[in-house]
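User: Teach me something about this protein's shape.
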Amino acid sequence: MKVMTLNCGSSSVKYALFDMPDGIRLCHGIVDRVTVGGSLIKHIKLDGQEYIHYQECPTHDMAVRLVIDFLTDRKRGVIKSLSEIGAVGHRVVHGGATFNKPVMIDDEVMEKVKEFSTLAPLHNPPNLAGIRAVRRLLPNIPQVSVFDTAFFTTMPRHVFMYGLPYEWYEKYQIRKYGFHGTSHFYVSRRAYVLMGKKPHEANIITLHIGNGVSITAVKGGKAYDHSMGFTPLEGPIMGTRCGDIDPGIPLHVMRKEKLGYKQMEDILNRKSGLLGISGKYVDRREILDATNAGDERAKLCLEIECYRLRKYIGAYAAAMGGVDAIVFTAGVGENSLVQRQKVCEGLDFLGIKLDNKKNRQAVGGKKEMEISLPGSRIRVFVIPTNEELVIAEDVFALLQNR
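Assistant: First, the predicted structure itself:
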């Protein structure tokens, strides 16, 4: 069975086509800079042949259409007909308290995904747009939702509860959920393999650093704590999201500026973070270039991001009673040697010894690599995430057990 996976993020659409159950990835790629201008598709076939095509995609619907066109293209495609696709699996960010495992998509599921868009306004809407696009283009193909929140159901109550009126938890399910679950699950499992340890034998901190940023404390193989919370706003500073702030700040500014709820939601999700501080940059490559050119606000962005990531590592090491490995993954985590180096600076007291030569070599996100020196008490890895494979495996397993 051929399973197509779609990961519609806030500014990108990642995709892959797998031949299951062998897990052979026939092709994969990304439509980048969706909705922000300068869109392009990077399409890579099984033999490594790569195609880059520039085409504006102001909506996620147009990006999904472009992906499907590439799959069946005479020169660049890998299938002759769309009828060869047996199922489509979607990464869906927020499943609330309703979904803790993959489910077949029907009208009721789509309504729930839409309902939870208020909790993940940057992600559930594009996730839903991908589902709707596939419904239109491949109306007879079964679709499956794989939820980011599912990996974090093992967090203990004292970790996921907030210091808020308890009835809010009972009435509205207000609690920490967690996101980027498929990514954290995959790279933590790969780290255990690379360490030659079973999951219950080690604690790991995984850092998913992209436009969105999240950190997971994996204790004995299970998610113990996570930086994101009720929504993906909580945690370290991100591309356009504020991360951890005093909750009194939005209330104060709303009174001063006479802003409504939706205006403040838009500011916190789309106009804050690195964009808010720099005034113009989200892409870390642009931030690094501007920093090297003497832009003080870009430099401040770099310092804030790396400081807060470093602070989370220290906190989670304490929370778990020790840590055996740290994993960098996702676009920035896999490709930016500067961020990795600056995050690890000052953590010598934990026993982290970074190999600067290996850190320089671990650029491009193409292979797993340890970047710590021999004898480092805490091992440091760069592991390219593979959310698509996790989604394909979940889709295939669900269809086989129907």
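Now, about its shape. The radius of gyration is 21 Å. DSSP finds 15 helices and 14 strands in the chain. If you'd like, I can walk through any region in more detail.
User: That's plenty for now, thanks!
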